[in-house]
């Protein structure tokens, strides 16, 4: 995973750890992987019932139309994160059936721990990437409109 803009503090270390944990997890799940070659596309179609990992080439992760970061070989593509992916050239993805991955995670506690750490890192990386985007579209809320639980 590589940033497209100015390097953010701590991003490189988080990305390195994310790739390492993703590699450990996918090695343990290697028997579930099926190759999915993808042609260049503005929106790479990802199967909702699969976990995807880049095995060759690069994809650009986007939030709306804004490019956030590059995913290269070995990167686990975040699921259900509101991101879309663009490929300027052909890319090879490995797809892991999500239901079977979940079954394996339930049976093998060390894999579940890897998954939880990978998920935590993914959230931290996405926070690094999406924070500047939210500053562009968010306007401050006046103090008078703060949440008051007694009103409900």
Q: How would you explain this protein's 3D organization?
A:
The chain is an alpha+beta fold. The strands form 2 sheets. The chain has a 4-stranded antiparallel sheet, with helices on one face. Helix 1 runs antiparallel to helix 3 and helix 2 crosses helix 3.
Multimeric status of the protein: single chain
Relative strand content: 15-25%
The chain-level structural class is: alpha+beta
N to C succession of SSEs? EHEEEEEEHH
User: How far is it from the N-terminal to the C-terminal residue, by CA?
Assistant: 44 Å
Task: Output mean pLDDT.
Answer: 82
Cα radius of gyration in angstroms = 18 Å
Question: Strands of the largest sheet, in order across it?
Answer: 1-5-4-6
Write the layout of secondary structure elements.
Elements: E1 2-3, H1 11-28, E2 34-38, E3 50-56, E4 59-63, E5 66-71, E6 84-86, E7 91-97, H2 98-107, H3 109-137
Antiparallel strand pairs: 1-5, 2-7, 3-7, 4-5, 4-6
Q: How would you sum up this structure in a few lines?
A:
By secondary structure, the chain is α+β, with helices and mostly antiparallel strands. 38% of the residues lie in helices and 23% in strands.
Question: Which descriptors would you attach to this protein?
Answer:
152 residues; 7 strands; three-stranded antiparallel beta sheet; four-stranded antiparallel beta sheet; single chain; 3 helices; globular; alpha+beta
């Amino acid at each position: 995973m590589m940033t497209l803009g100015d390097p953010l503090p701590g991003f490189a270390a988080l990305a390195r750890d994310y790739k390492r944990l993703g590699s450990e997890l996918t090695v343990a799940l290697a028997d579930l992987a099926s190759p999915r070659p993808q042609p260049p596309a503005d929106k790479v179609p990802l199967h909702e019932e699969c976990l995807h990992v880049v095995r060759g080439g690069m994809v650009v992760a986007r939030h709306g139309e804004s490019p956030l970061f590059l995913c290269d070989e070995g990167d686990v593509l975040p699921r259900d994160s509101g991101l879309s992916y663009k490929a300027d050239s052909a890319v090879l993805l490995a797809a892991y059936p999500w239901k079977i991955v979940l079954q394996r995670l339930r049976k093998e506690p060390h894999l579940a721990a890897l998954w939880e750490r990978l998920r935590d890192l993914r959230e931290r990386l996405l926070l690094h990437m999406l924070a500047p985007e939210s500053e562009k579209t968010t306007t401050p809320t006046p103090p008078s409109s703060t949440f008051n639980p007694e009103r409900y």
